[in-house]
Design goal:
The complex is a heterodimer of chains A (298) and B (305). By secondary structure, chain A is an all-alpha fold. Helices cover 75% and strands 3% of the residues of chain A. Chain A has a single domain, classed as ABC transporter involved in vitamin B12 uptake, BtuC, CATH 1.10.3470. In chain B, helix 2 runs parallel beside helix 6. Classes of the chains: A mainly alpha (298), B mainly alpha (305).
Chain lengths: 298, 305
Amino acid sequence: MLTASAILTDGLVYAAYLFIVAIGLTLIFGVMKILNVTHGSFYAFGAYGAATAVGIYTNADWPAAAGFLFMILMGLAVGLVLGIILERGILRLVYGKDEVIIVLVTYATFLILEDVIVLIWGPQSYAAYQPMVSAGNIEIGDLVLSNYDIVLVAIAALLAGLAYWALKFTRYGRLLTTVIFDRETAAAFGVNVTLVYTVTFIIGAMLGALGGAVMAPKIAVTLGIGVEVIVLAFAVVAIGGMGSIEGALVGALIVGICRAAAVHLVPQIELFVIYGVMALVLVVRPYGLFVRAQPRKI
Amino acid sequence: MFLFAAAAAPLLPDWVVSLVTIAFANALVVLGLVVLWRAGLVSFGQALYYCIGAYAVALTARWTGFTDAFALVVIGGVAAGLVAVLIGFLLARYREIFFAMLSLALSMILYGVLVKTESLGSTDGFSVATPTFLGYAPHAQALGLSLYWLTLGVDAIGAVLIGVYFRSVAGALAAPIRDNEIRVEFLGVSVTSIIHTKVVIAGILGGLGGALAALAIGHVDPNMSYWTTSGGFVFVTILAGAGSVAAAFVGSLVFEAVRSFAFDVMAQLWQMTLGSVLLLTILFLPDGLGSLVARLRRRGEAKAP
């Protein structure tokens, strides 16, 4: 019983982290049909920015809640700046080209940004554990949970709710949905698709950086975190279906709980259970769980 | 070109010989990617076959003590080929992004399995026994040269065979498949089986490349299956372009040279150099270096009245 509840809570926390990272990726893919490998860089930049923010507020001795907010805002700001630079600077040059070429362009940008991180922050790792420690723990029965993890799950839930509300009930959200559905028809109806692309990419970048920012207190912020996270985010998005927010949520939950189960029960398969689940889902539903098969245009 | 390279070997310094050996071993994997790229498919998981070939060689040498280089390379290719046949049934159903991602997932599965396998050294990997060549057991510089010539030999055979494939009907159908698959099916051709064949070819080439690399480097580790290794191969494919068989080898040499140079000159920033080169290639030379050669040749022909 204890193991089951431990698996559930660990799975939820891991799923929350995956969801925050994956939602930006799936949004960018859904709207722009770009598989953005640079998303890992957004995550890494967000984490490093958050680490810097934690350093600043710890030295200035701010209260924990204000510091946490500052960290989040720093992550979002970093994402905003990066998103604008990348979209206007590089992506604009390759929009018409083959999808796979664009993936390679984003891969190239990812490589470049990996070293930009080294240039800005140096090769050493940073520890930004203060928010996690100051949040404290609570005990539910036999389980000891970190309050920070609970905040993480809350943030992910909030994000999911916000995304759902924004897509269904705001004008911009509905425009976005039409562009996801059929870009050409949307353009024919007068939707400014270029602007939608830019704004979506920036939002996706900010979400990726947010993922890094909230995870910074839990991990060692060092080189290579971007690399690990991309493959995980891809797996989640592939399971859920590219472009589908509900898919990202369900995919994150599936991956999170499967991984938690693996870690607790059969640690040897932990690393590959995620990709095994992804391969399994893709065999049954080739485009992911929440995307219906696209009709082929001859 | 191969004959020239083979003849030049004893004159070149040791580090050039080992660099070219590894470049040409990787070029074989890239050749497999070129086969797929011609059909419009990018596999982000060629590292899977590379790693299988390498580990097959390493494990055979470790468990059976058999160290004949020729046999080991064949074993590596066959092992990877068998896996490719099995995986091909799944992969041939997908195109574009999902093909890339599924192949990436499969290579990461192998990575995960290898990292968690302590008997195989986990992330450290383990070393490969020194190869012998039909009884001849060279050391030091002679070993380097022998591996170099073996690599060149395997590469030459591969290049000739792939050239034959490209000139065959199945090879020529690659471009139509990329352009409009459905109409190729209207011709009565099974696109899925052609793509399956291409996956197997790429797998065998990847395995051969991995086997040669394992012998040349002398060490195998799970990182050979990590997606960044696949990314490197894809990088070279883009750099080389899908134009010709020779392009894969030239591109691989250029890549190794650039990488070594970048590591030497700017050790901290080599990824940025690589990324910038890739970006510039995609933006300004989208058909790779091979197209540059073709363009120069065309200009030369146009000039001669």
